[in-house]
Amino acid sequence: MKTTNIMIVGVGGQGTLLASRILGNAVIRQGHDVKVSEVHGMSQRGGSVVTYVKFGEKVHSPIIDKGEADIILAFELLEAYRALPWLKKGGKIIVNEQRINPMPVITGAAKYPETILEKLQKEVDVTSLDALRLAKEAGNAKAANVVLIGVMAKNTDIPYEEWVETVRTSVPPKFVDVNLKAFELGYNL
């Protein structure tokens, strides 16, 4: 089995770490070797968060180099654009259309780029969605991360039922129903 490289990018507080845990647990349930590496940056202050998830028969390092990511799962538009150099030729980006202003934009030192999605669509295979809206439909805006995991799950060989069980066992019991609905909305998009 070839090694699969997935890069999860977002902003602190968006649930990228839970998403990487769900992905890692789903892969382990399939009997694969998995390595996860979290690079937090300024996650506590709304800064960039990057997580690498690599899985296959035997994985020696969690680090994904530029040009190696099979999938980039992006929780925010600008973070998707920043991660583009890590996507391999023929790879896929799944991106939440949400915009979160970074500090230079908040302070007025810079402007948020207006045409990020269009630029991405010209360069690579992109699935874009309003994960925040779907999460609210599921019952909690914080479940946007699980909506995105649902979309990504369609691009894996892991059976739907395995994903559902992984979500069920990876989130706190009181949030299981909302997260299962969020996963289903993303999976069926």
CATH superfamily: Pyruvate-ferredoxin oxidoreductase, PFOR, domain III
Return the CATH class: Alpha Beta
Helix content: 25-40%
| CATH topology type | Pyruvate-ferredoxin Oxidoreductase, domain 3
Q: Looking at the structure, what is the overall shape?
A: globular
Number of distinct beta strands: 6
Instruction: Provide the low-confidence segments as ranges.
Output: none
Report the major sheet.
6 strands, mixed
Q: How are strands sequenced across the largest beta sheet?
A: 2-3-1-4-5-6
What number of domains?
Answer: 1
Give me the CATH architecture, please: 3-Layer(aba) Sandwich
Query: Average pLDDT across residues?
Result: 93
Explain this structure to me?
By secondary structure, the protein is α/β, with parallel strands linked by helices. It has one domain: Pyruvate-ferredoxin oxidoreductase, PFOR, domain III (Pyruvate-ferredoxin Oxidoreductase, domain 3), CATH 3.40.920. 39% of the residues lie in helices and 24% in strands. It is built from eight helices and six strands, in the order βαβββαβααβαααα. The chain has helices at 16-29, 77-83, 103-106, 116-123, 131-138, 144-153, 160-170, 176-187; strands at 4-11, 33-39, 48-56, 69-74, 87-96, 125-129. Strands 2-3-1-4-5-6 form a six-stranded mixed sheet, sandwiched between helices. The radius of gyration is 16 Å and the shape is globular. The protein starts with a strand and ends with a helix. The relative contact order is 0.17. The mean pLDDT is 93.
